[in-house]
Design brief:
The complex is a heterotrimer of chains A (107), B (134) and C (98).
Chain A lengths: L2 E2 L2 E2 L14 H10 L6 H17 L5 H12 L6 H7 L6 H6 L10
Chain B lengths: L4 E6 L8 H13 L4 E6 L36 E4 H6 L11 E4 L5 E4 L1 E4 L1 H9 L3 E4 L1
Parallel strand pairs in B: 1-2, 1-7, 2-3, 3-6
Antiparallel strand pairs in B: 4-5
Chain C lengths: L1 E4 L8 H8 L5 E4 L14 H8 L3 E4 H6 L11 E3 L1 H11 L2 E4 L1
Parallel strand pairs in C: 1-2, 1-5, 2-3, 3-4
Classes of the chains: A mainly alpha (107), B alpha/beta (134), C alpha/beta (98).
Chain lengths: 107, 134, 98
């Protein structure tokens, strides 16, 4: 069984128990992907966690893009910006760092 | 890609069987294809969007919260059968206040849910290209 | 006897069959989608007289999950899981109407 800082993850690296998430786990996951989490990453990660808490799902990329643009400014509301932060996809990689399940409809 | 009219017909309550959550998952996945989607709630399906669901006591995910996200996915046509509500001792006030932001009207919040008669629903169904029942 | 019913009376005839065959000392516990029958709904007459005799119960957790805790009909008694166990102990054999 794989784990990150003692928290169980599935074969794709997503946390098995959402409650295990800590900021340190997110940082470790990022480090394993050669990313150092900056303020811009945390904006998205925190947003994803809030969205999940409210709606019980991870948002589709198109929904995420629109919402980030609305909340943090138009220059951030596009997929180019989000992919620059999360090269493996804001949905897939972002949600993984945020401790959420893989987004619905994301392959 | 041409746009078709899809209706998802929800006939079961949320937690006794897996139909309700499966339907919602399909709706969310299909939303990515930007079709003209509407949802109908008839029979025990009306319980899916009733206020004040609290699943703490049964240890299941309260996915009634997810219906509030449908507006973000441009799904804003939710029809509820008045007859089904009445049979079950429920009324319009028992339904969650689901809304969407209207892009064509300065992002004003508007209600997504319409309580309609079975006769009206049958007319809307007849206008669909595809009708999927859960 | 204790009779548990876990299907909606709007979808299956489990509750009706149960009521048709129940004896005078038995009680009914509505669980899972069975609790859909515990409000003031069109099928309430099915169990109204039994409820008036204090012989109909509904499981609180399932009632809460379906958002109908404020709509439970008069005379239907709510029980938690511990109450469920008490009913089993008190009434001996259990029939599950599925």
């Amino acid at each position: 069984m794989d784990d990150i800082l003692g928290a169980e993850v599935d074969e794709e690296g997503f946390l098995v128990n959402l409650g295990d998430w800590t900021r340190e786990i997110a940082e470790q996951m990022a480090k394993d992907d050669d990313i150092v989490l900056a303020e811009e990453h945390w904006q998205v990660i925190d947003f994803l966690r809030e969205y999940f808490d409210e709606y019980q799902i991870a948002p589709a990329v198109r929904v995420l893009t629109k919402a980030i643009g609305k909340k943090f400014g138009k220059e951030k509301g596009n997929s180019k910006y989000l992919y620059s932060l999360f090269p493996y996809g804001p949905g897939k990689q972002g949600c993984r760092f945020a401790g959420l399940p893989k987004p619905t409809g994301c392959i | 890609m041409s746009t078709k009219k899809f209706m998802y017909l929800n006939r079961k309550s949320s937690y006794g069987t897996v139909y309700a959550i499966e339907s919602l998952e399909v709706v969310l996945i299909a939303a990515a294809f930007e079709q003209d989607v509407s949802l109908a709630f008839i029979d025990d399906g009306v319980f899916q969007i009733i206020n004040d669901q609290n699943t703490d006591g049964i240890g299941m995910k309260n996915f009634s919260k997810t219906f509030h996200a449908l507006g973000d996915y441009d799904i804003n046509k939710l029809y509820v059968s008045r007859e089904s509500l009445e049979e079950r001792g429920l009324n319009e006030g028992d339904i969650m206040p689901l809304v969407y932001e209207d892009e064509d009207d300065d992002w004003k919040e508007k209600p997504s849910v319409r309580v309609i008669s079975n006769a009206e629903l049958s007319k809307i169904m007849s206008e669909q290209d595809v009708c999927l029942s859960f | 006897m204790l009779h548990t019913v876990n299907k909606s009376s709007f979808e299956r005839n489990s509750l009706q069959s149960c009521v048709n065959t129940i004896d005078d000392s038995s009680v009914i516990l509505l669980i899972e989608d069975g609790v859909i029958s515990c409000t003031n709904n069109a099928n309430l007459p099915m169990i109204a007289s039994l409820a008036a005799e204090g012989r109909v119960y509904a499981l609180q957790g399932d009632v809460d999950a379906r958002g109908v805790s404020s709509k439970v009909a008069d005379n239907i008694k709510l029980v938690d899981y511990a109450g469920f166990v008490d009913l089993v102990v008190e009434h001996g054999a259990t029939v599950s109407w599925v």
